[in-house]
Amino acid sequence: MCVHFGSLGIKQNIKKVWIDKETRGKSIGIILADGTTDYMPYDQPLAIIKDPEYMLQNHIEHIIAQIKEVLEKKKISKKYLAQQLATSDNQIQRLLNPNILNKNLTQLYKVASLLKLEFEIYLKSAS
């Protein structure tokens, strides 16, 4: 992947770049030509170029967040979900953990259905 720093809104030359340890690697530190220091989220370049793997993970994280919100609002336990889906509590924990990248979309659809939620998927032309 190659992203020109100008597409990130950076107008000066970059002197130094590093992974920010204070944010546990979630941001990138940048020292600009005039000596000023700035930071950006580590995934901003991926969002700008709409990297397919990044976009898929981002969409899955949003789906999981919505499912968790409804579970909390309706006071439905993960144990109940596991029973209804004939699976283990651990499988539900993994399914609803946004840090675990490998997801079973069939299971997410089943959970959504149990919660009376529907998916709407559409494609549009990329700009």
From TrEMBL:
UniProt source species: Candidatus Scalindua rubra
Source taxon at top rank: Bacteria
SUPFAM superfamilies named among the record's database cross-references: lambda repressor-like DNA-binding domains (SSF47413)
Protein name: Uncharacterized protein
GO terms assigned for molecular function: DNA binding
InterPro entries assigned to the protein according to its UniProt record, in alphabetical order: Lambda_DNA-bd_dom_sf
